[in-house]
Amino acid sequence: MFAVQFVWTQFLASALVLGTSNVAQDFVTVYPQVIESRQGSSEKVVFIHEGNTLNLRKASVLSDSVLLRDVTEDGIIERNIDGAYYERNLFEDRVKQASLLLEPQAHAGYAIRGLVNSTHRIEPVESVERSSSSGKAHRLLRIPIEFETCGTEDV
After folding, report:
1. Residue 123 CB coordination number (10 Å)
2. Cα separation of 23 and 132, whole Å?
3. Does residue 37 have a pLDDT over 60?
4. CA dist., res. 5 & res. 100, Å (int)
5. pLDDT given for residue 110 in this prediction
6. What pTM value is reported for the model?
7. Spatial contact of 139 and 29, defined as CB atoms under 8 Å apart
8. What is the structure's pLDDT at 107?
9. Are 17 and 142 in contact (CB under 8 A)?
10. Residue 101 — pLDDT band, cuts 50, 70, 90?
11. Where is the signal peptide (predicted)?
């Protein structure tokens, strides 16, 4: 069952990026809407795009301090981040493997950052005007998959 659901999630995510054309785009601009539950702020529903909805619950970082390693061409950059700070706005959808930061904005709405599923991520678009009916623009991006060889080109 899990494998079928995972494949279906990947198919839906691919359909979001491909749209109706045969050529893949780098990103799709979306206007996600966040609906909060009546019980408080621990559950939210996020409508990302047509047919793509996340049922979010409060998530935990499990540590006061988190070591973040960024691997670059120049080496590894390490820094500690405040886990409690990020945990305030951290939500997850375990079924769709989503992990998002929902940061409330001064003029209503949210800035949403994180993983929508195993193949796509979302981030706010700073230079695009807010839609009067749909909220703040965000970019839905495919996560690049890089395959490395293990040195067996002659096999």
Report:
1. 14
2. 30
3. yes
4. 20
5. 93
6. 0.69
7. yes
8. 80
9. yes
10. very high
11. 1-19
Cα-Cα-Cα-Cα dihedral sign, residues 27, 29, 33, 34: positive
Per the CB < 8 A criterion, the answer to whether 124 and 137 are in contact is yes
Average pLDDT over residues 38-65: 88
Q: What is the pLDDT of residue 135?
A: 79
Q: Where are the domains of the chain?
A: 24-61+89-142
CA-closest candidate to residue 31, choices 127, 113, 126, 134: 134
Tell me the per-residue pLDDT of 54-72, one tens digit each, with 9 for 90 and over.
Answer: 999 999 987 889 898 999 9
Q: Which amino acid is at 131?
A: S
d(CA 8, CA 13): 9
> Left (φ > 0), alpha (ψ -120 to 50) or beta: where does 40 sit?
left
Contact 140, 122 (CB under 8 A): yes
pLDDT confidence of residue 62: 79
Report DSSP state, residue 26.
Answer: S
Query: What would the two tokens of residue 97 be?
Result: 């493997």
Q: Comparing C-alpha atoms, which of 94, 132, 139 is closest to residue 112? A: 139
Q: Which residues lie below 8 Å from residue 130, measured CB to CB, with a gap of 6+?
A: 107, 109, 136, 137
CA distance 153 to 118: 29
